[in-house]
Each structure stands twice: as structure tokens, then as C-alpha cells.
Amino acid sequence: MKASKNPIHAVSRWIRRQPPKMKVFLAVLSVIAALVFLKMVVEDNDNLFVAAETVHALGTCVLIYKLSKEKTCAGLSLKSQELTALFLAVRLYCSFVMEYDIHTLLDSATLGTTLWVIYMIRFNLRSSYMSDKDNFGIYYVVIPCAVLSMFIHPSTSHHWFNRICWAFCVYLEAISVLPQLRVMQNIEIVEPFTAHYVFALGVARFLSCAHWVIQVFDTQGRLLTALGYGLWPFMVLLSEIVQTFILADFCYYYVKSLIGGQLVVRLPSGVV
């Protein structure tokens, strides 16, 4: 009787009973359906990128609310916030020297709120910071991105240093959330505000990825030529796809917990 009255729970239970291959198929089908829907309802594809940056900024505002209300930074990764601030700062530099538009303003707002979160974790709420759980070595992220950007970067007419910076922030953004995912894997139970923030990142990354994928289809591949030659166009698309799928598992468990009426997200070991 309850199942018939709540079709969402019935669908959720049906999905959980499916074998892994069927779940992968359903996930791919859902992504394709979402892309088709966005292509139909969004006239200007650039609005998807603006929406992605807006959602990211809103997610950071959720963190600020958590820090201000609960007076604790438990469950948050300082390293992820520092990586986020780093790629935003580099992207802002590229935006100022290459082009100045609405993205510059949104990135400035997000960088400002991210720096405030870093300050709160480092100083005001240091006692609640789980440094033992935040054990992902950021040099495993920054150094490979820096080296890769030196060899694979845009072939535009801009100065070579600016082109390397552009590539570096693209690569770093794709994997900057890894320390936060490691923290959540270590504690296995994610409280609501942190879960909302990470889910917002997942939505933002999907919208950004959708922007590039739809653009490629709309221009029949000409966008890739406009980005340059060599491996750079492929790496841009790969970075967008990677940063989306990195958060896919968490977003699944987030929605699952939300449908089940749970206030926290429980992650099985090995998800991240």
C-alpha cells in the first residue's frame, strides 16, 4: 500500500534491485535525457556555464551558513577549499588578461566566499577541523596539473604563460574536490550542510560539462577547432567529463538519502 502511494520510493527500490550493468545503463540514459532536455530548453548555451558558476557560488554560501550557524567545520576539507581558491584565482587572472565578462564577476564572488571559508577553518574554527581525516596530499594534484599544463595547453595568440595558466586551472578544477571526497570517505557519514555543498558542486560540474558537450554538437565539432589544435581540445572535454563523474557516486547516494528521508548521507567504504 505504501509503495503504491509513493512511486518515488517504488522506483528507488526497483533501481536498487537491478544488476550493476543495468544501473550503469540507466545512469547513461539519464545523462543523455538530461542533455537533450537542456538543449531543448536553453537557447543560449553560455547560460549553462553561468548557471554552473552560480550554483557553485550558492554551494559555497551553504558552507558559510553552516560555519556561522553550527560553529564547526567538521567534515569539511581545508585542502579542497585551498585548491578551489587556487584554481579560481588563476582563472580570474586569465579572465582579466584575456576577457572580462559575467564569468569574471561570478568567479570573484565565489573566490571571496571561498577565502572566507578558508579563514574560518584555519582560525576561528580550527579546533573542530578534522586534520587527521583530511589526509589527501595536494601535491599529488597540483604538481601533475602544473606539469601537464606546460605540455598541453591552448594554441591561441595569447602569451604562452597565460595559456599555461588557462590549462592549469582547467585541470585543477577537474580534480580539486578529491580531498573533500576523501574526508567523506574517511568519516562515511556526511552531515546535511556538507552534503548540500558537495551536491551543488556535482550539479555545477554537470552543467559545465553539458555546456561544452552541447556546444560541440551545435557547432558540429567546429568548437574544438576554435579551441586550438593538438590534444588541448580533447583535454578540455575530458576534464569536464572527469570532474562530473568524480562526483557522480556521491550525487547518487545524496539523492538516495534524500528520497529515503534521511538527514545524513551514508557512504559505503570504497565509494571515493
Characterization of this structure:
This protein has 13 helices and two strands; from the N terminus they run αααααααααβααααβ. It is mainly alpha-helical. It has a two-stranded antiparallel ribbon with strand order 1-2. The protein starts with a helix and ends in a 6-residue tail after the last strand.
Briefly characterize the structure.
This is ER lumen protein-retaining receptor C28H8.4. It holds the Pfam family ER_lumen_recept. With 272 residues, the chain is mainly alpha-helical.
Identify the notable features of this structure and list them briefly:
272 residues; two-stranded antiparallel sheet; single chain; 2 strands; mainly alpha; 1% strand
User: Distance between the terminal alpha carbons, to the nearest Å?
Assistant: 36 Å
Please give the share of residues in helix.
Answer: over 70%
N-to-C series of helices and strands: HHHHHHHHHEHHHHE
Number of strands: 2
Beta-strand fraction estimate: under 5%
Tally of individual helices:
13
Largest sheet: 2 strands, antiparallel
Give, in spatial order, the strands making up the sheet with the most strands. 1-2
